[in-house]
Design a protein that fits this description.
The protein has 322 residues and is of the alpha+beta class. It has helices spanning 6-12, 26-42, 57-63, 81-89, 98-105, 107-116, 133-140, 166-174, 219-223, 238-254, 290-296, 302-311, and strands at residues 14-19, 46-51, 67-70, 124-127, 144-147, 158-160, 180-184, 188-196, 203-204, 208-211, 229-231, 260-268, 274-280. The chain has 3 domains: 6-94, 3-Layer(aba) Sandwich (Rossmann fold); 104-120 and 187-307, D-amino Acid Aminotransferase, Chain A, domain 1 (2-Layer Sandwich); 124-184, ATP-grasp fold, A domain (Dna Ligase, domain 1). The protein contains 12 helices and 13 strands. Helix 2 crosses helix 12. The protein is globular, with a radius of gyration of 19 Å. It starts with 5 loop residues before the first helix and ends in an 11-residue tail after the last helix. Mg(2+) 2 binds at residues 278, 280. Pathway: Cell wall biogenesis; peptidoglycan biosynthesis. The active site is at residues 25, 153, 289. Keywords: ATP-binding, Cell shape, Cell wall biogenesis/degradation, Cytoplasm, Ligase, Magnesium, Manganese, Metal-binding, Nucleotide-binding, Peptidoglycan synthesis.
């Protein structure tokens, strides 16, 4: 990472930190945005908060930001809709472009792309109101995971241990999404890998292992307790660590992500085989968040990480213009 000085801060111009929004992850996004804003200001950057849940696109245009840091999570911030508006407004932004965000936000389409690339991900089924749930249990076995494919990894998710509980789990997820994802349950270690850069320059940060109480990394244990333990770098042998990092970068590139992101992986206990779960194009940046944790393991401070991300802000669709 190159040295950052006051001249560089001036060159970045007026920076907007977009946070809040209207998704189920609004509260977490506010925490992320607050942290990013303070980090950028501590480096002398002219950074300003902008809550997209309270203010309009017209107001965003009127702010005349030179670039924006997207600290939004979930719908209307991480799904390509905001990215498309920023492309139209000509405001460079952090993270992935319109198509990559839209695909990554849909766990089903992400899986389809990974499978076409020969990348390992748990077997799955898509559920609708008329789906034969008994047939899905026969296909995937028990336990299984049921979740809305367009929400964060800890929103609307249920671990189904008995067939009798499947319908209720479906109804919880269906409260968030029209189509629901059922996924085979992989018993093993929960890992996550932050990735920075784009294309051939994309690189994995040290792997984080998540050790949640009773293996339950839900919304509460993810953001609001100190009971969940994190190990970084994860205690893996060299070969396994290299394979998990390689797969994470391949998964990130397969969806055409850039700037920064985080890939979640399960390492199966029976044979140490890694399985890709999802890719996050705007991961959390709270005090509990995992991308800053991976960066710290390389000696990169939270503040320097925020600077590197905001420096990478760009328009993705302007390249095709003559």
């Amino acid at each position: 990472m190159s040295v950052f000085n006051s001249g560089d801060a001036a060159a970045l111009g007026k920076v907007g930190v977009l946070f809040g929004g209207r998704s189920a992850e609004r509260d977490v996004s506010i925490m992320s945005g607050t942290g990013v804003l303070a980090a950028l200001r501590s480096k002398g950057i002219d950074a300003h908060p902008f809550d997209t849940g309270l203010r309009s696109i017209t107001e965003l245009a009127a702010e005349e930001f030179d670039r924006v840091f997207i600290a939004l999570h979930g719908r209307y911030g991480e799904d390509g809709t905001l990215q498309g508006a920023l492309e139209q407004l000509g405001i460079p932004y952090t993270g992935s472009g319109v198509m990559a965000c839209a695909i990554a936000m849909d766990k089903i389409y992400t899986k389809m792309i990974w499978l076409m690339r020969g990348l390992p991900t748990p077997r799955y089924a898509t559920l609708a109101a008329d789906t034969d749930l008994a047939q899905v249990v026969e296909q995937l076995g028990l336990p299984l995971i049921v979740k809305p494919p367009h929400e964060g990894s800890s929103v609307g998710i249920t671990k189904v241990r008995a067939a009798a509980d499947f319908k209720a789990a479906y109804e919880v997820a269906a409260g968030f999404d029209e189509v629901v994802l059922a996924e085979e349950f992989v018993t093993g270690r929960e890992l996550t890998v932050a990735v920075l850069g784009r294309g051939a320059t994309a690189r994995a940060l040290p792997i984080v292992e998540i050790v949640a109480p009773d293996g339950n990394y839900d919304y509460q244990n993810k953001y609001f307790t100190d009971d969940t333990k994190y190990v970084c770098p994860a205690a893996l042998d060299e070969a396994t660590s290299a394979e998990v990092a390689r797969l994470a970068v391949e998964a990130y590139r397969a969806v055409d992500c850039e700037g920064w992101g985080r890939v979640d992986v399960l390492l199966r206990a029976s044979d140490n085989k890694p399985f890709l779960i999802e890719v996050n194009t705007s991961p959390g940046m709270t005090t509990h968040s995992l991308v800053p944790m991976g960066a710290r393991a390389l000696g990169i401070s939270y503040e320097d990480l925020c600077v590197e991300i905001v420096r990478s802000a760009r328009l993705k669709m302007a390249q095709g213009q003559g």
